[in-house]
Write a structure and sequence with these properties.
Helix content is about 25%, strand content about 25%. The chain folds into three domains: about 1-20 and about 95-115 and about 210-245 and about 260-295, no CATH class; about 20-95, M1 Pyruvate Kinase, Domain 3 (Beta Barrel); about 120-210, no CATH class. The two termini are about 35 Å apart. It has a six-stranded antiparallel sheet, with no helix packed on it. A four-stranded antiparallel sheet has the order 8-14-10-11, with no helix packed on it. It has about 300 residues and is an alpha+beta fold.
């Protein structure tokens, strides 16, 4: 399954926010303590400018400029000094920081459950000693619900697919939480009282929350299209709403004040929120077909 670039997602959100800082690249690798930052064109910089690395969000405050070398304070504004490779991208004085954007993305992704979700798949090896409870191994992906479960009976062209958990069927399956650890060590178990076959594994498809996990610069649970659009719009709405100015009337704006009309940003945030919810609804409808939630029929 493909994943989506964190850098691209951040840039898409910046575009919506009309936050288009000058982007440069450092021309040498840096360790976490070096305070001389070499850039391609020192004329773009001045003392007081904030330089933000786009790989991890470290901010550096420029204290002086000599030709193409900047003297900086590392780990500025509560960020953490880190190592950076040659040609690492940097943004100058961004309106919205890397950390603010990635925090908004993470918050929006956490809020997607239970509206939308992702697939997790596991296999259960049948036990013929009368056991009805199968422990979910520690360290496995935490499944929230079962979507479907089946065994392949037989081999070759004559094999059949047998489904567990069918309404009014003789072979139920359920996911049980808060079980006594004396029964199942993880406290979570599949309840399978009857087996159709004992010589083949039961394949279980389940659902769980989408995460904001980033690996190798990619959001591993997000795909291009509806999913990325949903998170982009919701994160932009969250960031815009956080910048609104609280005033009671139009008259509160003093002469020469260049800020926006009261609640203008709230209206804009609501617009992007509605677009994000629309994309989430499309995503949800897609999942109803491709990964439906299974009704629980109370076989216990």
């Amino acid at each position: 399954m493909a994943a989506f670039s964190q850098a691209t997602l951040i840039q898409r959100i910046r575009t919506i926010l009309n936050d288009n800082p000058y982007i440069d690249a450092c021309v040498e690798a840096m360790d976490a303590s070096e305070v001389g930052l070499d850039v391609t064109d020192g004329t773009k910089y001045a003392a007081g400018i904030i330089v933000e690395f786009q790989t991890d969000g470290e901010q550096c405050l420029v204290t002086s400029v000599a030709a193409n070398t900047l003297t900086v304070i590392r780990g500025y504004n509560g960020t953490t000094a880190a190592t950076h490779s040659i040609n690492a991208l940097m943004a100058l004085d961004p309106v919205f920081s890397y950390m603010a954007i990635t925090d908004a993305i993470a918050a929006c992704i956490r809020g997607l459950w239970p509206h939308v979700y992702k697939l997790v798949a596991e296999s259960v090896t049948p036990v013929t000693t009368g056991n009805r409870y199968y422990d979910l191994a520690a360290g496995s992906v935490l499944m929230k619900e079962i979507s479907s479960a089946y065994q392949i009976i037989g081999t070759g062209a004559t094999s059949t697919v047998f489904a567990y958990g069918v309404h009014r069927g003789a072979y139920p399956i359920d996911l049980m939480f808060n079980m006594p650890t004396s029964k199942v060590s993880s406290g979570i178990a599949y309840y399978i009282p009857f087996l159709k076959a004992t010589d083949t594994v039961i394949l279980v498809n389940g659902i769980t929350e989408i995460t904001a996990t980033v690996g190798s610069g990619l959001y591993s649970d997000l795909l291009e299209g509806i999913q990325v659009d949903c998170v982009t719009y919701l994160a932009a709405a969250r960031l815009i709403a956080a910048t609104d100015i609280s005033r009671t009337t139009q008259e509160d704006i003093s002469m020469g004040d260049a800020t926006v009309v009261p609640l203008r940003r709230t209206s804009l945030a609501q617009y992007w929120l509605s677009k994000g919810i629309d994309e989430r609804f499309k995503w949800q409808q897609q999942l109803k077909i491709t990964l439906p939630r299974r009704q629980v029929f109370g076989h216990r």
